[in-house]
Design goal:
Radius of gyration: 25 Å
Largest sheet: 4 strands, antiparallel
Strand order of the largest sheet: 1-2-3-4
Distance between the termini: 85 Å
Helix content: 25-40%
Number of domains: 1
Number of helices: 4
Number of strands: 4
Shape: elongated
Structural class: alpha+beta
Amino acid sequence: MDNQKGFTLIELLIVIAIISILAAIVFVALDPATRFADARDARRQSDVTEMLHAIKIDQVDNGGSYLAAVAGTTSAQVYMIGTAVAGCDDQNAVCDTNVNSDTHCVNLTALATDGYLGSVPISPNGSGTWDATITGYTLERRGNGILVIRACESENTSEITASR
């Protein structure tokens, strides 16, 4: 009688199949694509809040006057934040908010230069492709003095905005 110890090929294949099925179930349950989208949305929310705080702190430090780039905006118009001189509304296909003023982008680099921001945030790429010229964030100055900063796109939330 041959007394060999070990597993048969069939037993090994069954164990591998069970482990593969369990791994697939865990992978689907965790849904990494949704988790990445949630992380990008959280980053966008943090960025809009950070920019709004920086603008307001700059305003307080300068006796109530807005940064020149913000003061130069027309009330109730939505501007893209960035450094592009013209063509700032060419991202409307991927924006949640319609950018209706393409005369210029609102350039917030002075906030970074003056120490209110580490740098002007750039939205994590989702549907759009963003860089320093068109950041993926918008600014609106309402007639009552309220500033609204929005992320141009949101993936798993209805709208990413901060206002004050």
